[in-house]
Amino acid sequence: MPYKRVLCLTAGLALLAATPAAAQSIDYGSLQELFGEAVTTSATGSPQRSTEAPVDMTIISAADIKRSGATDIPTILSRTAGVDILPFAAGAAEISVRGYDQARSPRMLVLVNGRQVYLDHFGYTDWHTLPVALEEIRQIELVRGPNSALFGFNAVSGVVNIITYNPKFDQANSASVQAGGLGYASASLVQTVAMGPGVSGRLSISADKQDEWSNSNPAILATQLSNPWATRAAADVVAEIAPRTDLRIETSWSNSGQTEMLSSYSYVAHRVKTGSVKATLDADTAYGSLQAQAYINQLDSLAAPLHYKNTIWVAKLQDLLKIGTAHTVRLALEYRDNKVNTTPVVGGEVGYTVLAPSAMWNWQASQKLALTAAVRLDSLKLSRTGTFPVGVKVTNNAAWDKSIDKVSANLGAVVAMTDVDTLRLTAARGVQAPTLVELGSRQVLPTTAPPKGVATLGNPNLQPALVTSYEIAYERELPQIRARVGLKAFAQTTEDVKSGVSKLQIDIPATATTYPAITYLNIGKSRMKGFELQASGKLGQGFRWSADTTYVDIEDKPIAGYNPITRLAAFGETSPKYRSNLSLGWTNTRWTVDTYVHAVSKFNSYTATQTLEPVAGYTSVAARVGYQTASGLTLAVSGQNLLDDGQFQAKSTGLAAQRRILFSVSRSW
User: Fold this and answer.
1) Phi first, then psi: what are they for 151, rounded to 5°?
2) 569, 554 in Cβ contact below 8 A?
3) Can you tell me whether residue 577 is helix, strand or coil?
4) Residue 509: how many CA atoms within 13 Å on its side-chain side?
5) Looking at the predicted structure, is the pLDDT value of residue 16 above 60?
6) pLDDT of 61-85, one tens digit each?
7) SS3 category, 39
8) Nearest-CA neighbor of 186 among 297, 76, 90?
9) DSSP output for 118-137
């Protein structure tokens, strides 16, 4: 079993950990006290404020999460500058950055403590099934733009890096229950324990359920919909196995069901099970801060008739070297093995292995200038095993013996122009690899004998999309009024855009014995440009505020003969021009009050027939009021979609987001 491979590697790492070390696991709490705000080590390995990192990053703190009143991560992210959200159903939403959002959006890299949690078969993230309770999250780092060289495989539109409390340093203990409108009910428990000398652990369990949103389209059948529910559990154990050497074991499990939107823009009742085991060894040595990590993700996804069983395991070695006081170098080597079955016609298995060396160099050239350069090579080897169904044109597994070698890169310069003015310049090239579904896992055949009917098949010749981005950002502190303002301008080009399958265009002609087929293709370029304005600050006694607006303009430039609309790749049509946020909050010793306004300009969405339908621009309002009693209980009432009890936020037909009021009781200790 793959789990045994991870556990064997863990034991080997422990036996090899004889060298003295110092850095071990990262104590974010101490770093936060030192810097006076949330900090990151994700971009360069060294602690930095988000404004000092060589990437466009926003850090959402645990306090921000608690005050949000949100019950899911997509809602929290949607209140951050530049983020696009498509809430297709009560338990299903898609997230992207600065446009390009779509059903089963494949452009975001999502991590929990360095482990990818986006699902490799489709390359999307099922947020509802993430095995993490909101109460155990220390911070969420949102990184905008392609950052494959710094953060890893498939970081194209952006990165969501979820960091949980470390049981070695943090006593994260809490219990909470919530109930309210639309049949919503949830409960969570997070407990940290000392398990022995040098060993600490944390266990979290959570569950929730709710009713599905109202359906306005009689063509959508009740069998296509499912009331969302989920059960999740995770365990995190850190052991100091030698002086300044830590071994961290993380396991998780989730089981969930909800209405999902397929990439063909059809609703479907979806059941998802996930499981993972991860082992990380950190050691600070005379040769640098060494890290060895291995993990396995297993997925069982059923959206009848499609039933995917996906297994991926990843092993990574990394060395972070400090050279003098000005230079930091990070060298890494990653290996990935990824496999999934063919479905709904079974009998085959599609997979690939990836070997990816990478390097990062950060140079603090002066007190006012920091430069960062990173490069990564992804060498992908595609393969297929098993049988082929009758009626398909390609029946030789050798057609999948392909190699893809692509380089990604990141360049960043952070200039402290004055004590209050910061300028950041970035350039990046990211690689969006084809998903296993696109490469051949999907085998949908008609019930008629060939050549009648149309098959849906994957394409082993599909190439990665390459995303190049440039950004200039200026930020200024205004200490006189306790505020900060920022302005960003950016431009991005996507080459070899990957299309969906078009029901209106045959890609593989029929023969006397084979079906005509539709498949996934590279269809041209897409260009995006835009700007972003942000401001935040504090007022009077306990008041805080923030505001932002992001504008993007996307121009799709397909190859002759391909229509971006029918190929499900009309990003210029389906991305809103503007997305904006406004928040206002107040806190004293007992009370906390927060209000959030989220506004999106008009855009288009796809129908199940692959035509476009207009979605009116909308404004949604959410709020939370919390009170902490003398005994330490927190009582809160929160509301989502307060302006409208049936607001279309992703489509103009089908499911509409409904108003919901929730009551919660929680306690931390």
Assistant:
1) -115, -20
2) no
3) coil
4) 2
5) no
6) 999 999 999 999 999 999 999 999 9
7) strand
8) 90
9) SBTTTTB--GGG-S--GGGE
